[in-house]
Amino acid sequence: MKIAIITPSYPPSIGGNATTSARLADGLKSKRIKTTVFLPEQLKEKKNLEKLEKSKPDIVQAFHAYKSGIIGSETCKKLGIPLVVTITGTDVNINLFQDEKKDKVKEILNFAKTIVVFHKSIKAKILKELPHIKNKIRTIKQTVKLKHKHCEIRKKLGISKNDIVFFLPAAIRQIKYENFHLQEFVKLNKKYGIKLVLAGPVLDESFAKGFLDQIKKHKWIYYIPKIPHDEIKCVFEDIDVALNTSITEGGMANAVLEAMSVGKPVLASAIEGNRSVIKDNYNGLIFEGKNDFYKNAQKLILSYKLRKKLGKNAKNFIRKNFHYRNEINGYASLYRKALGLAKY
Question: Are 251 and 90 in contact (CB under 8 A)?
């Protein structure tokens, strides 16, 4: 079986789509499923589109309905093969409701042979808009696959081993920082001397300019444009609290799962994607609004015992409920069924 994967990003680029698509491509090798990966912008060039077509894939797997599904559906129509679409948070929470994008997203979801979601909450949102596609939606949870390349993030940044470090791995775009409360961090730094590390590429230039100008005013905030994924485990091990300040996730964020798998407490915004994996005050903390954020951040700063408890529970939760083998088996089974080699 041959699968053509179309994804908005792929290593050495970083981000959720890159992490998920690379994890899938790597895992499918063990199933003797050959994968070829393309970026949507690559397929704007005739030579790359011809390369995809000449590879004669059995299925096109698109990550992100709007960004990858458009060229994916066109290719599938031309070759007469099935399209599998894995939905992102941006697809369901934003693009599906934007006047200039919603019709195209619906067209792609209607055309797709199978639609993959990470959590039942995402399925429910899709079915409110497109109830007739219920039978083609499958839930396959994201999982974690981390390498361990040694790094010394505190040493590189000049941060003391005694400092409390908050870490936010997220691309610089507005939806990822909608619940980022800078002034609360300023208060926490003045009172407790905390440090804040932000890591992620700029994906929204207009938002990034003002945002990065703001954080440059604070010497205790460190911005790293890129951390290679094979170093991310090491970075998580070297920080105290992981953050998610997004307004949207596609059911669960890779970075949240990764932090939890390493045994780090996560302080996350109260959105469905975070609540799908974080049980408040058991394996992480959820916040709503700036006051709640400050209160919970302060708890984590003051209590090493709380950080250890949440981190331990988080690690056990991931170990028990998120198995890489199940994710790969889920996709492999789904592909066989899409080709009529097995029943749904």
Answer: no
